[in-house]
Amino acid sequence: MIGWLVLLAVVMWILQTVLGLWQFRRFQQHVRQLRAKGRVTIGKAKGRFRAGAIVLFCIDEDCQILQGEILQGRTVFAGFRPLDRWNGQSLLELGEQTCEGIDPQIKKAVLAARKDYEEYMKLRAERETCPEEAAVGTGRLQADN
């Protein structure tokens, strides 16, 4: 009896691993498709007892949202759906007021996408103003011989 339980646990673990990899590959493929259209920023909100949410925003050079998509669900079978509410708006203008009346997990993911993009742009600006110091922080600066 114990042997069957151990075998069942191993089979379930393998199944979980395979399905997780399948979901990750689908996610990667989806991000690649959006990157063909423009820059992509990603926001996520983890859910322990509620369904988590991942938001993808494809933006142009002026930070205008070209396309929004959301992945929300409790299983690996959840798929991306259009999130058109903010298309045409500036990513940098998204805030508490623009997210009123939506699911709290989606709101967290949207605000996280904006915050991550702002942090990326701040880091990029720092690297442009002082490339030597930025390179030291990333381990890319080589010592002169």
Structural category: alpha+beta
H and E string: HEEEEHH
* Overall helicity: 40-55%
Number of domains: 1
Q: Overall 3D geometry?
A: elongated
Could you give the order of strands across the largest sheet? 1-2-3-4
Low-confidence stretches: 139-145
Cα(first) to Cα(last) distance is 67 Å
How much beta, percentage-wise? 15-25%
The helix tally amounts to 3
Average pLDDT over all residues: 84
What composes the largest sheet? 4 strands, antiparallel
Radius of gyration: 20 Å
* Count of β-strands: 4
Give your account of this protein's structure:
Helix 2 packs across helix 3 (131-138). The protein has 145 residues and is of the alpha+beta class. Helices cover 47% and strands 19% of the residues. Mean pLDDT is 84; it is low at 139-145. It has a four-stranded antiparallel sheet with strand order 1-2-3-4.
